[in-house]
Structure formats: C-alpha cells, structure tokens
Fold:
Amino acid sequence: MDLSFLVVVVIVTALVFDFTNGFHDTANAMATSIATGALRPKVAVALSAVLNLVGAFVSTEVAKTISSGLVDDAKITVPIIFGGLVGAILWNLLTWYVGLPSSSSHALFGGLIGATWIAAGSGAVHFGTVVQKIIVPAVAAPIVAGVVATIGTYLVYTITARARKKTVDDGFRVGQIASASLVSLAHGTGDAQKTMGIITLVLITSGSLAHGSRPPLWVIFAAGLAIAAGTYLGGWRIIRTMGKGLTEIESPQGFAAESSSTAVLLASSHLGFPLSTTQVCSGSILGAGLGKRLAEVRWTVAGRMALAWLFTLPAAALVGALAGRVANSGNLGVAIIAIAAAAAGLGLYAAARRKPVTSSNVNEYPGTPTPAPAATAA
Amino acid sequence: MHIDWTALAQVALASLLFGVGLVVLFAIGITAWSRRAVAVEAGKSASPVDTAAAAFCFAACVAAILYGLYLIIPQLH
Structure:
C-alpha cells in the first residue's frame, strides 16, 4: 500500500476529528446523568467511551458518499476533505472552549461545503439539499425533543407527586443509566462510522482500496478507538453547560430528557429523517427544565447555544474554504495548514487550562449556588 | 428541494408515543414501588396490586430498552 503524504495527513486529521467528535458529544449522553449524580463523572465517561467503541464495531456500514449529497461528490478531492476536516476540528475546539454543544456533523458538512465551494464553485454546492438536510432538521430537532421532554417531565412529576422522594430519586437514577447508555451506543454506531467512511473513501480515491470496499479492520479499530478516547477524555466544559447551565436537573427530569432523546434519535434514524444528536439532546434538556413547574431555564444559555448552531455551518465553511484552498497548492500547503491548525488547537487548549473544567468541578456552574465542596467546608 | 414533512411528522409522533409512553410507564412503576416500599417498612404486607403494577411497568421498560437495542444494532435486523 503506497500512501502519499497527503493521504496520510488526511487519515490522521480524520482521526483527530473523530477524537474531537467524541469529547464534544460526551455531554449529549452523559451530562444529565452526571448532573443528577446517577453516575460519578469518571464512571459516566468511561461507560460512554466503552459503548461508543462497541457501537463503532457494531455498525461498519459506511456511507457511500462523504457529504450525503450536500455537495457534488464527483468534485470532492482529497485536499477538499482535508480542508473540511480542519474547519470542523477548529469549530469543535472553539465551541468546546466556550463550553457550547454544537453538532460535529454540521461542522464537518460546513467545512466540506466551504472547501468545495472555493475549489469547484458555488454550482458544486447543492443548496436545496443543505436546507433539506441541515437547516430544517436543525430547527425541528430541538423542538420535537423539547416538546416530548416537556410533556414527559410534567407527567413524571404529576404521577410521582405522592410517591416517596427517595424511591423516586433512586429509581430514576437507575433509569437514567439505562437511557444514557442507549444514547451512547447509538452515538457510536452513527458517528464513528462517519470517520470510517471518510478514511475508506480517501483510500479508495487514492487507489489504495478497490471501489466499493468495506472499511479495513485497522480503520474500524482506529476510528472506534479515537472516538472512545475522545469520549473518555470528556468535554467537561460542555457537560457542565448541558448538565448545569441550561437548568437544574433532578433525576426524574434527567430520565425524561434522556428517554426523549433516545426516542427521538431512534425514531429519526429509522423513519428516514436524520436529526443531529446534539440538537436533540439539548432540546430534551431544555424541555425537562420547562416541564417542571417553577424550574428555572436560563434562556441566555439557550440563546448562546442557538447562536452557536447558527454559526456552525458558515464558520466551519469559512475555515474549510481557506484550509482546502491552501492545501490544494501541494504538500507544502498541506503541511502549513496542518501546522497552523495544530497551533490553533494547542492555543485553545492552553487557554482552557487557565480556567480548567474537570471531572471534579463539572457540577459547579458559575453564578449558581452550589453546595460547598466538603474539603473547603472546614 | 424536497422536504419530507410526512417523515418529520412521523418522527414527531413516534417520539411522542415512545418517549412519553416510556417515561409514564416508568413513573407509574416507581410510584407503585414506592407505595410497596412504604407498606413493607411500616410492617404491613404489600398490596399485590402495587407489586404487580411495578413488575408490569418495569418489565415493559426493559422490553422497550431491548427494542431500542434491536433498532440500534443492525446485525439484528
């Protein structure tokens, strides 16, 4: 197998994207379980990582096209894929730094759209499909999930109003673990497979694999491990926003939110209207806040999330366009972009280190009264 | 551009049915379980209705989880 410099760089970049995808999305499945104490933070991310890994092996049916028809796939070249990945990675890191969930697939599609647009003109971008597959689902996802979670939460509190509080809290914590696990598994089957698809298609394009090949075993392993490692690392900044920032979550709300997410995600992927996991889960948590009487929902946080979603596509597209353009000029361009992206990533990492969010302070959202940690109570 | 509103409506309905249905079942199960636990702690014998209701609800939730697994794992289809 003779791999060019470009192909090797793209495979590594795809795995880096997969890794950021993992830690960006840990929050979707686990934020509410961590917030209610159903699972200890480290246990939650470990469970989610294992289930993502299992999911990666369970579903290796990769997509036949990279962009699902958002752009003219015949016009997609390896430098375009590289540019798209770089745009998606940087957007993922930036939103992680500010602690906002955003859809990794939308970031990837944004990057690809930008890179394709610059390389092959606006005619290669199928704007109708963008509206159909990105914009409409992005609006529908939080609304559907939010409504289901609101009704579910309201009914849970009504039904269990006269039950003993301890039984209710403990019982729903157990339920949360089950529903969060399903979300994690579903995530692994969907998202790890995206990276496998990209690597496989790059290998096919470069002639290393025959047309129509299934992903080789090492690709499945690498993609599964990358997403699992990212998940285990835990995007604590995002987990904190989703678990504590949007609203205070009790275990019945957490269970209602996660059941709503599971139901919406499974229904959407089996009835042919794919919705973004991030947007579904955020909508569910919001709904869980709305469904409980007198629960406070922080609309400023929700507004910031909506803003981040609005910018996901164009921001990733812009970076993707620039990166794809430079990468197209040859190996030197690819190297320059790879180094610049790594520098930007390290910069964000260093900035995040100044005010770190870890498994130990994930449940303390700034500006909210939180019980003082036992260590400082004395 | 073609937006499949029918599919979206189906997703919304199925989500509502399964999402809310599961939560309601579990809540009823927990409530019955709680009544049972309170009775047992008070030294009274648990009402068989509560026990049966809790068992039925939790069994239905387990079935829902298994159905979810069936949907997620393509090898089972």
